[in-house]
Design a protein that fits this description.
Largest sheet of chain B: 4 strands, mixed
Strand order of the largest sheet of chain A: 6-5-7
Distance between the termini of chain B: 20 Å
Number of strands of chain A: 7
Strand content of chain B: 15-25%
Strand order of the largest sheet of chain B: 1-12-11-10
Radius of gyration of chain A: 28 Å
Order of helices and strands of chain A: HHHEEEEHEEHEHHHHHHHHHHH
Structural class of chain B: alpha+beta
Oligomer: heterodimer
Number of helices of chain A: 16
Shape of chain A: elongated
Strand content of chain A: 5-15%
């Protein structure tokens, strides 16, 4: 089993790396002008534009002319954009592989904080060894430039946001958003799981009766009607009939009240999903011979339903449970946009539309990891619930 | 008799207002909103040129001057200012007792005169501020351009770290070079300008001349300040930020130890909620979660016609015009769809003055204005280039009135005055004759670009197409609407694919040069000439002559610095020349409708700069103002 876990983890790591690399390369294929705002494109001089691209790590100072654009009295042949240009730009494109190297190389970073806990500088990976050797030798790596009381911490680093939350660490941006999405997502998942499974069981128990038809009607309506319509109805009904706030507000007197409508909207679809699948698996199980045998042996309906049917029917549902839990981190684009929830949902699309490279990379890395880990944990959970399922060994394994 | 009648009317309205105001509870906590596209991107006031940022930041740090509700300059951090030499040197004297404090109100340092030098050094330092906001000081303050170039060259030769280490201290390169002298003891800041610039005090309301504490830089470093957040910021203004959640909301709380607390009125809190659209904002207003809402056209018409939410009809209030003056910018050097081949047909046609004048006089834009204001479209009419309220003569006359006098156009709220079909037909006939001889084929296609994702823009473009078709005829010009995906600059403006743009300019300071200076010929600093009209690239001699005539008049007007009335009169002549040649077609002002609990006439009303969103001295009540109440407030305001 350990061998299997290690193997899966290794495979997962490779897949995540591949996904990140593909996104990284794709983002670098965009025209560089997209990294500027409309105003910047017009107001920036060429030199300013190149300087910004250099800061983003997309360009580097031309080694041939050392950024001057001239070699002697001649235009630098390396960074000259056209044969007619009288001067080179002083910058050349940076290799994508070097950028990728930086991305992974800078993932661990040391940050220096002053006595008040405010970050004042970072130590680049190339300076880490000199820093550590000076530190170990009892020397002051900052040569007195830092005031007393500073501290140095090792942090996970995915770069800084270049547009959405300009110059803020991507990890900080994601962490703040993630916590909001996770809170709302977990509550709605719990509600939909409990409601969905219970109602699904009842539907199976009273198959082809009124309750079953109502439940089926609910799942059909939820899946057939566009979510936006459902959310609009919930929003207006919740606000006008129940007086509930229409948008998330962590500063409200009762912040939990502002989460009611988003949680309802998030739960409504997944409840229908759990109802549908619970009912289906339960009905499948109910038709199996061992259930008939159990009934013939005189086991009560309740015991049959919960001890045998539900336990077996829940196995396929359990496979996707870890994935669903982890998916809550990603939030919901529609619900979070609709109720102004400051979560992860709209973050990726917004980051893409504003060409915020580092943020896109960070979010893709997160989503890819979550997806793969979720499936992996689902497999493990299945083996826990149903020990007959084997993930390793020869022959009849998953 | 007329005067007596109007006085009686004002008195009656004031009486109405007094009766209603007596029962209205004052609003202590304001809930307002912005659309999500206008979310703040940086907390560094020196590093931003975006209105979305400055609307927030102007509340957090006090500049030398601000504006009152009539748009007049008002003392702020400065308790006085004067120019001893007619406008070349300006001395600002600071109030005593101003402090920098953190978000919790803990005092960090005194606000000193030298903070203005530190702020200006930051703006002009190439390595620190990436040239944001550097252009105005470079144009106006002696030695500023030299210092900027010095830091830029030093960055290239020595690297950014060496330049980031520069400061504004005594004996520094900045102190030696730049025309600013700060005396911390006397609390005076003396700016020496490149020339006599009588409008310079209005620049003191703008962020390029905002202070920065050297102690803050010492505490968090240069990179720390560039990347600063609301949690680490040092405040000196009327509000601190007590809560911020990106794309959700920000809460301003009145600063606990604000130096000017006794002399100004502030809300306890102002909550700015980020919403997706005007329709969501309206729902929030209905639900009591917002205290004002600008109405989109569908909602407005529903209320006005009584088909939906009719209970709000008595509360409809026409908003005051924003500072933006919208123009139809004509492109003089345009390319075809491929973005490379010159569109000779268009370029030849638009260089012809008769062709331009046929558009200028031939378009009745009333229906287009109705897209902004369906109830009173003519509230949005605009016949001049400069925005209203930017400059006033000594007798209080708005500068734009001088331009309208020169043009012979006066606002009329019953018809679109500039539209003159007979005159347009004359110009059209002449243009067809002259241009046919030059090989131009008709109809001339007018390529107009809108965002592909905007339904509103698509509907507006359809209205514009109809106006072109009805007013000028499909045999003459055809407006063709095209779309871009995400960037007008990259996809349209750089490849020069559009024939016209409709966009607005809002002034940064109180002088017509801030408008007209964007359109001058052969001037690298002229924003619209270089970025939109590309007038420098059309070699038609008549067009060049027209532009040159206008540019010469602007230069002559700019040189008048000792007599403001004469200066404005000269600018008005230049602007009239610009419009008489139909080099641009004035289009509209933004005047929408809203439901509000805020007295619009108590708000800072600045038609230039960045002070309009300063939540100081605003009056607001717990219930929305009725149309009548707001009309009474407007009358009282006009009578002030």
């Amino acid at each position: 089993m350990i061998k299997y876990i290690l193997k899966r983890l290794f495979q997962s790591l490779i897949v995540v790396l591949l996904v990140v690399c593909v996104v990284f390369f794709l983002l670098r294929m965009m025209p560089s002008d997209y990294f500027f705002t409309e105003d910047e494109l017009i107001k920036f001089t060429e030199a300013q534009k190149y300087a910004k691209l250099e800061r983003l790590g997309l360009m580097q100072i031309c080694a041939n002319c050392e950024g001057k654009g001239m070699v002697g009295d001649e235009a630098c042949p390396v960074c000259r954009e056209s044969p007619q240009a009288a001067k080179g730009t002083g910058y050349v494109n940076r290799s994508v592989l070097a950028q990728l190297g930086d991305f992974f190389g800078d993932m661990l970073q040391m940050r220096v904080f002053n006595a008040k806990g405010k970050e004042v500088k970072t130590i680049e990976p190339v300076s880490l060894i000199p820093y550590l050797s000076q530190k170990l030798n009892g020397q002051d790596p900052f040569e007195g430039s830092m005031k007393d009381g500073y501290s140095v911490r090792m942090m996970f680093n995915l770069g800084k946001s270049i547009r959405l939350e300009k110059n803020q660490y991507v990890t900080d941006v994601i962490a703040a958003k993630m916590s909001v999405s996770l809170g709302i997502g977990l509550v709605s998942l719990a509600i939909s799981l409990v409601l969905g499974v219970v109602l699904g069981v009842l539907q199976a128990r009273y198959k082809d009766k009124l309750f079953d038809h109502i439940g089926t009607g609910y799942t059909v309506v939820v899946n057939a009607v566009p979510r936006l319509v459902i959310y609009t109805i919930i929003m207006i009904a919740g606000a006008t009939l129940l007086g509930l706030p229409m948008r998330y507000d962590a500063t409200a007197k009762d912040p939990w009240l502002t989460m009611v409508l988003p949680v309802i909207c998030l739960s409504i679809g997944s409840t229908a999903g759990y109802m549908l699948w619970t009912r289906r698996y339960m009905v499948d199980e109910l038709n199996k011979d061992y259930i008939r045998l159990a009934k013939l042996k005189g086991l009560s309906d309740r015991k049959v339903m919960f001890r045998h049917v539900l336990k077996n029917a829940f196995v396929p549902l359990a496979q996707y449970l870890p994935y669903s839990i982890l998916l809550t981190v990603g939030g919901s684009l529609l619900v979070e946009t609709f109720f102004a929830v400051p979560g992860m949902g709209p973050e990726l699309t917004t980051a893409i539309s504003r060409y915020d490279l580092n943020l896109v990379q960070g979010i893709v890395l997160l989503y890819a990891s979550m997806g793969i880990i979720g499936v992996f944990l689902g497999d493990l959970l299945m083996t826990v619930i149903d020990p007959r399922i084997k993930l390793t060994g020869k022959g009849d394994v998953r | 008799m007329k005067k007596l009648l109007s006085l009686v009317l004002v008195a009656a309205m004031l009486a109405t207002l007094a009766v209603s105001a007596a029962g209205a509870e004052e609003l202590k906590n304001l809930n307002t909103y912005e659309t999500k596209a206008r979310e703040l991107e940086t907390w560094n006031i020196h590093y931003s040129q975006a209105a979305a940022d400055l609307n927030v930041l102007c509340n957090l740090i006090d500049g030398l001057l601000t504006n009152d509700n009539h748009g007049n300059l008002k003392l702020n951090a400065a308790k006085s200012y004067e120019s001893p030499d007619g406008g070349k040197t300006w001395v600002f004297t600071l109030n005593e007792g101003m402090t920098w404090f953190d978000k919790d109100g803990n005092v960090q340092a005194d606000v000193k005169a030298s903070d203005w030098a530190t702020g200006l050094e930051w703006v002009l330092n190439y390595a620190k501020n990436d040239s944001y906001n550097a252009s105005m000081p470079m144009e106006m303050i002696a030695g500023a351009e030299e210092y900027y170039n010095y830091t830029k060259e030093l960055t290239e030769s020595e690297g950014a770290d060496a330049v980031k280490a520069l400061d504004a201290g005594e004996g520094s390169k900045f102190a030696e070079t730049v025309g600013i002298v700060c005396d911390d003891e006397a609390g005076t800041i003396t700016y020496t300008l490149v020339d006599q610039l009588p409008y310079f005090p209005s620049v003191a309301t703008y962020n390029c001349l905002y202070p920065l504490s050297a102690e803050l830089i010492e505490e968090i470093g240069v990179d720390g300040y560039r990347d600063i957040t609301w949690e680490d910021l040092w405040y000196s203004g009327a509000y601190v930020i007590s809560y911020y959640e990106y794309t959700n909301q920000k809460v301003f709380t009145k600063s606990p130890n604000y130096w000017n607390d006794a002399n100004c009125k502030r809300f306890d809190t102002v909550t700015v909620k980020m919403v997706d659209s005007a329709s969501v904002a309206f729902q929030l207003f209905k639900n009591g979660e917002l205290d004002h809402v600008s109405l989109d056209q569908a909602t407005l018409q529903g209320i006005y016609n009584g088909t939906s939410d009719a209970e709000y009809k008595d509360y409809l209030v026409e908003a005051r015009p924003t500072k933006y003056s919208y123009q139809i910018h004509l492109v003089y050097s345009k390319n075809l769809e491929d973005g490379e081949t010159p569109d000779v047909n268009w370029n030849t046609a638009i260089a012809n003055e008769n062709f331009r004048k046929s558009l200028y006089y031939g378009l009745d834009l009333t229906n287009y204005l109705a897209r902004t204001n369906a109830i009173n479209p003519l509230s949005c009419q605009n016949y001049v280039y400069t925005g209203n309220g930017v400059a006033f003569t000594s007798d209080g006359t708005d500068y734009t009135q001088l331009v309208r006098n020169e043009l012979g156009l006066e606002y009329n709220y019953e018809s679109y005055v500039r539209y003159n079909p007979e005159l347009a037909a004359e110009y059209k006939a002449k243009a067809i004759e002259e241009l046919t001889a030059k090989g131009v084929t008709f109809p001339v296609t007018v390529d107009y670009y809108i965002s592909g994702s905007s339904d509103v823009a698509a509907q507006t473009a359809k209205v514009l197409e109809n106006i072109f078709s009805t007013c000028l005829g499909d045999d003459y010009v055809v407006l063709k609407t095209n779309t871009y995906v995400s960037s007008l600059a990259n996809e349209v403006r750089k490849p020069r694919k559009a024939s016209i743009y409709i966009n607005g300019w809002g002034a940064d300071f109180a002088d017509p040069i801030n408008f007209l200076g964007q359109e001058t010929y052969n001037d690298t600093a002229a924003y619209y000439s270089n970025a939109y009209s590309n007038c420098n690239d059309n070699d038609d001699p008549d067009l060049i002559a027209a532009y040159q005539e206008f540019t010469d008049l602007v230069i002559a007007a700019k040189a008048i610095t000792d007599d403001m009335d004469a200066r404005y009169a000269a600018f008005a002549k230049a602007e009239a020349c610009f419009l008489n040649h139909a080099l641009v077609i004035p289009c509209s002002y933004e005047v929408g409708w809203e439901l509000t609990k805020i007295n619009n006439y108590s708000k800072v009303y600045s038609m230039y700069g960045m002070q309009a969103y300063r939540y100081v001295d605003w009056e607001a009540q717990a219930e929305p103002y009725t149309t009548e109440e707001m009309a009474a407030l407007a009358a009282a305001y006009a009578a002030e």
